[in-house]
Specification:
By secondary structure, the protein is of the alpha+beta class. The chain has 17 helices and 15 strands. It folds into three domains: 93 residues, Rossmann fold, CATH 3.40.50.1390; 138 residues, Alpha-Beta Complex (Hect, E3 ligase catalytic domain fold); 140 residues, no CATH class. The protein has a three-stranded mixed β-sheet. A three-stranded mixed β-sheet has the order 10-14-15.
């Protein structure tokens, strides 16, 4: 049975209860204590103070003495108890992470399933042992690759020999019946086969959210010689060299100049180039969503060659304007102090927010002392302090948003100052009748196309974007 944490309200039984409330089958909810309802103080507060009253549902927490149908001081301290429960969940999450990281630093393998070619030791916890049943397959894959066979060919050889792919061997829920080049490549770059354990590659967004984000390689925890190797280090290094050389030398069948830069203006997806025609194949740009039955997007059927010519002509016009110093000077004058002026305004907002937050903290400290000295009652203290805490939390969010805005403005200033780099990129662009991909990627950040065949070009240099928008 799957376990669910109190930090999430997306729990099957909780959802069933809400459904019953919506259907007027329930008019009272009872829990042992507040933490049984949930440990997320924001959502817990929403259900107790908004959702339950709006649906005429009485909430009772037995151990906390909370009853929303009674006028009790215990009800007033509910938000603070919810915060404490939330902090407890956060603290537990930190402790668990600390324990797991300590194990990773020791080289203990913490994955739920051992990598293909290995099995978990029954004697030593969190240690890998070679799985003799399939370790020869790993050796065969490296051997075939070093002999010059491609990823697809290796996949075909393994399928022809009737060797089960990893997902089928481990009897996973989602099983592939054939080997794939992606699986082969993942095995060729996996250091586990030379005896190293590499972990801490991703982490949860927060203790409340299950979604994971990928970490930078510098944050990985790599411990060498934690278990017996299947592949020698020499063989592994040779495989990496071949992979690297093939990646740099490989060219697709249709190597479009603008591939990787074209995006849909409507939905933001990267646009593809499809070729049609039996003899003289013509490339057309479209959005994958436009091909779906419900036509979620309408950006489609634009002749790629025509699009490429228009884009290159537009870029040439922009860079020629950039080279026209007199015309450019007028544009610079109009935009001269915009960024710095805006930053000063945002910094003043930050100072005001800091002043307001300091004032709230002082008021909370004073109210606490007044409450201790019985100048104000517990009921008044909890009511007033709750309002102040909510205001302070809002100010914190405003502060974070302004700091992010200042970072963005400073980044734009940096781009604006990077004129020497822009000059060099433009000089290279103008040398060629048709520039190569490297030069284009230095100049252009992205190109967007909408359903009306309007083209939007975004450069890596603010000076060029200013010209584009004038």
């Amino acid at each position: 049975m799957m376990a669910f944490h109190g930090t999430t309200f997306d729990r099957p039984d909780f959802n069933r209860m809400i459904e019953d409330i919506e259907n007027k089958k329930i008019n009272m909810v009872i829990t042992k204590d507040l933490s049984r309802l949930g440990r997320d103080y924001i959502k817990t507060g929403y259900y107790i103070e908004n959702y339950f009253p709006e649906n005429n549902v009485r909430y009772v927490s037995i151990l906390d003495g909370i009853d929303t149908f009674l006028d009790s001081t215990n009800n007033d301290v509910t938000p603070f108890k919810a915060i404490i429960n939330d902090m407890y969940a956060k603290d537990i999450s930190k402790k668990i992470k600390g324990v797991l990281q300590e194990k990773e630093l020791k080289g203990e393998y913490l994955g739920s399933i051992a990598p293909y070619g290995y099995k978990k030791s029954k004697v030593y916890k969190n240690k890998l042992e070679i799985d003799k049943n399939v370790s020869y397959v790993v050796e065969k894959i490296f051997e075939l690759y070093l002999q010059g066979n491609g990823l697809q060919k290796i996949s075909n050889i393994l399928d022809q020999e009737g060797i089960e792919p990893p997902s089928k061997y481990f009897d996973l829920k989602y099983q592939r019946t054939t080997w794939s080049p992606k699986t082969i490549r993942a095995m060729l770059v996996n250091e586990v086969y030379i005896g190293n354990t590499v972990q801490n590659k991703s982490a949860n967004v927060s203790y409340k959210v299950k979604k994971r984000k990928q970490k930078n390689e510098s944050e990985y925890i790599r411990v060498e010689n934690t278990h017996e190797a299947i592949i020698s280090k020499d063989v592994f290094i040779k495989a990496q060299e071949i992979l690297k050389s093939k990646k740099s030398l490989s060219t697709p069948k249709h190597n479009e100049l603008l591939k990787g830069l074209i995006f849909c203006h409507n939905c933001g997806r990267q646009l593809r180039v499809c070729y049609r025609g039996k003899i003289n194949k013509i490339g057309y740009i479209d959005c994958s969503l436009a091909r779906e039955k419900d036509k979620k997007c309408k950006t489609c059927n634009y002749n790629y060659k025509r699009f490429e010519n228009k884009v290159l002509d537009s870029i040439k016009d922009i860079v020629n304007t950039f080279c026209d110093k007199n015309a450019l000077k007028q544009i610079y004058e109009r935009n001269k102090n915009n960024y710095n002026y805006t930053i000063k305004k945002e910094e003043q907002k930050l100072l005001n927010i800091k002043s307001n937050m300091d004032a709230i903290s002082k008021k909370l400290d004073k109210m606490y002392l007044d409450n201790v000295n019985e100048v104000i009652t517990n009921e008044d203290y909890f009511r007033y302090s709750r309002d102040f805490i909510e205001k302070r939390e809002k100010l914190k969010k405003d502060k974070a948003n302004i700091q992010e805005q200042i970072k963005l403005l400073q980044s734009n200033i940096q781009k604006n100052q990077d004129k020497e780099k822009a000059d060099k990129a433009i000089e290279e662009f103008l040398k060629f009748e048709k520039p190569n991909k490297q030069i284009l990627f230095e100049l252009v950040d992205r190109i967007e196309l909408d359903e009306f065949k309007n083209i939007y070009i975004y450069f890596n240099f603010s000076e060029l974007n200013i010209i584009m928008n004038n």
